[in-house]
């Protein structure tokens, strides 16, 4: 999985007054959990642009006074009015410990059903993945090539390389539905065939 770097500064004061002062200075208060003890720090809001405002997922290398901590974003709070970032929780990664993340689904291939007039529906845009940090995928690939009209692609058909998918086996990732136009055409064809059969009699 791709990693992005964020430069932060450790905080000694973590009370409400210090937190408000940090926000007024354009900084985002953050905490890293998962280590021996929580690490409080601040970073400029623009530093999180490539992490928060994107459909992609990344691990994060947090630079704190020359010391780097690898982590993933765990939780984020936004201001309900201005939509500014109020607070971010990170979880520290350890090379020998598996981690759980939501990873986007990437559709590949041209469905036979879609080419025949069906409509593709992506039921799962993200899937919960568990893996060691080094094996976390950027996305989970969903090949729809063999999907005929009315078919479903189940999670059991997705390739998993050194990671586990945590959804139930009956989870539908994508399906090809019959479009209204295709349904109407089929109904009209059936009517025409029925009419032709009556004339022959």
UniProtKB/TrEMBL annotation:
<dbReference type="GO" id="GO:0022625">
    <property type="term" value="C:cytosolic large ribosomal subunit"/>
</dbReference>
<protein>
    <recommendedName>
        <fullName>Large ribosomal subunit protein bL25</fullName>
    </recommendedName>
</protein>
<keyword id="KW-0694">RNA-binding</keyword>
<dbReference type="InterPro" id="IPR037121">
    <property type="entry name" value="Ribosomal_bL25_C"/>
</dbReference>
<comment type="similarity">
    <text>Belongs to the bacterial ribosomal protein bL25 family. CTC subfamily.</text>
</comment>
<dbReference type="Pfam" id="PF14693">
    <property type="entry name" value="Ribosomal_TL5_C"/>
</dbReference>
<comment type="subunit">
    <text>Part of the 50S ribosomal subunit; part of the 5S rRNA/L5/L18/L25 subcomplex. Contacts the 5S rRNA. Binds to the 5S rRNA independently of L5 and L18.</text>
</comment>
<dbReference type="GO" id="GO:0003735">
    <property type="term" value="F:structural constituent of ribosome"/>
</dbReference>
<keyword id="KW-0689">Ribosomal protein</keyword>
<dbReference type="InterPro" id="IPR001021">
    <property type="entry name" value="Ribosomal_bL25_long"/>
</dbReference>
<dbReference type="GO" id="GO:0006412">
    <property type="term" value="P:translation"/>
</dbReference>
<dbReference type="InterPro" id="IPR020057">
    <property type="entry name" value="Ribosomal_bL25_b-dom"/>
</dbReference>
<keyword id="KW-0687">Ribonucleoprotein</keyword>
<feature type="domain" description="Large ribosomal subunit protein bL25 L25">
    <location>
        <begin position="6"/>
        <end position="90"/>
    </location>
</feature>
<keyword id="KW-0699">rRNA-binding</keyword>
<dbReference type="Pfam" id="PF01386">
    <property type="entry name" value="Ribosomal_L25p"/>
</dbReference>
<dbReference type="InterPro" id="IPR011035">
    <property type="entry name" value="Ribosomal_bL25/Gln-tRNA_synth"/>
</dbReference>
<dbReference type="InterPro" id="IPR020930">
    <property type="entry name" value="Ribosomal_uL5_bac-type"/>
</dbReference>
<dbReference type="GO" id="GO:0008097">
    <property type="term" value="F:5S rRNA binding"/>
</dbReference>
<dbReference type="InterPro" id="IPR029751">
    <property type="entry name" value="Ribosomal_L25_dom"/>
</dbReference>
<dbReference type="InterPro" id="IPR020056">
    <property type="entry name" value="Rbsml_bL25/Gln-tRNA_synth_N"/>
</dbReference>
<feature type="domain" description="Large ribosomal subunit protein bL25 beta">
    <location>
        <begin position="98"/>
        <end position="178"/>
    </location>
</feature>
<comment type="function">
    <text>This is one of the proteins that binds to the 5S RNA in the ribosome where it forms part of the central protuberance.</text>
</comment>
């Amino acid at each position: 999985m791709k990693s992005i770097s964020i430069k932060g500064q450790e905080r000694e004061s973590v009370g409400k007054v210090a937190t408000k002062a940090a926000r007024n200075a354009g900084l985002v208060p953050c905490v890293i959990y998962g280590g021996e003890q929580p690490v409080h720090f601040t970073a400029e809001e623009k530093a999180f642009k490539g992490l928060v405002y994107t459909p992609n997922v990344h691990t994060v290398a947090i630079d704190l006074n020359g010391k780097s901590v690898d982590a993933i974003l765990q939780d984020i709070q936004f201001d309900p009015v201005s939509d500014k970032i109020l607070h971010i929780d990170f979880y520290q990664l350890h090379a020998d410990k598996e981690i759980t993340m939501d990873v986007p689904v990437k559709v590949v291939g041209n469905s036979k059903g879609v080419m025949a007039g069906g409509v593709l529906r992506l039921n799962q845009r993200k899937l919960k993945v568990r893996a060691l940090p080094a094996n976390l995928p950027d996305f989970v690939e969903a090949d729809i090539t063999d999907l005929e009209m009315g078919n479903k692609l189940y999670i059991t058909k997705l390739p998993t390389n050194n990671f586990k998918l945590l959804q139930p086996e009956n989870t539908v990732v994508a399906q090809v539905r019959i479009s209204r136009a295709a349904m109407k055409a089929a109904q009209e064809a059936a009517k025409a065939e029925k009419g032709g059969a009556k004339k022959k009699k």
